[in-house]
Amino acid sequence: MAVHTPLRGLRCFCVAAECLSFKDTARQLYLTPSAVSHQIKQLEEQLGFSLFERQTRAVVLSRQGQQFYQSIKPLLQGIESTVQQFCQQQREQKVSITLPEFFASEFFVPRLVGWSELHPDINLQLETVKSRSDQGRHTDLQIVLASSKPTDKTSHQLFPISYVPACNPEWYEKLQTEEQSPLEQVPLIVHQARPWCWHQWADQAGFDDFRPKQIIQLDSMFSVARAAQQGLGVALIPLPISAAWFDSGSLVRLYEEELRTRDHYYLIQHESAEHRPEIKLLVDWVLERFQL
């Protein structure tokens, strides 16, 4: 007649054989001592011999119990390892990435089209920050804007960035008919992380007598672009990440001259993420579509 021995009884025995205490075994397995004693007794009845010698304040393995433990322990470990392996294959795969807010909405997300179809089992979590001075929480990957390549972690250079003066079409048409310099007639908008950006642009563009009427600083690049689009004034807009605003006609370049900086976008990969295949898939995706 076949004998059916529950795995939980074998696991209970192995833990008890290592603890030599039914009380400690019960604590590890979240059982009661009586439940542990019952499972051990049930296993002994199936085997036909005693696994433990019960003493007044302790239990010790019998000779046959020691032999049975040495035989069953590696088999039980193999079963647990196999179960764990299959659980890991079915676990939720998630990759988190921190990136600038404007970069995310205008450049990153549009280029994710097609990712879900190729990798339906990998979930993405995007954390955005308004400027480079903001500290996002720890994530698997980061995209940062920096004037030099980060050297303390694995990083990949993506592309440089430049800034162009832009306004909405209504302001553009009006400023073309004015004799006075446009930059002396309307407010100039800039991200507060670059308060001297307009003066740098004027130096590079050759505006020797640069006297802006008013400069307005905003705390996010999206706010800068939106303010220019709504007619608040002329803004310095980053390219290429804001190309869609110009392609749609929401913004028009007021001058061809660009402010060129040493800034580049970089993809940073933490060392702890190097051995996760789902992260490598996203890194490869970004490098293929974002290196300009």
UniProtKB/TrEMBL annotation:
Keyword set, alphabetical order: DNA-binding, Transcription, Transcription regulation
InterPro entries with a match to the protein in the record: LysR-type_TF_proteobact-type, LysR_HTH_N, LysR_subst-bd, WH-like_DNA-bd_sf, WH_DNA-bd_sf
The keyword Transcription regulation is annotated on this UniProt entry: yes
Annotated HTH lysR-type domain residues: 5-62
PANTHER family assigned: HTH-TYPE TRANSCRIPTIONAL REGULATOR, HTH-TYPE TRANSCRIPTIONAL REGULATOR TRPI
Family membership noted in the UniProt record: Belongs to the LysR transcriptional regulatory family.
Protein name stated in the entry: LysR substrate-binding domain-containing protein
Source organism per UniProt: Rheinheimera tilapiae
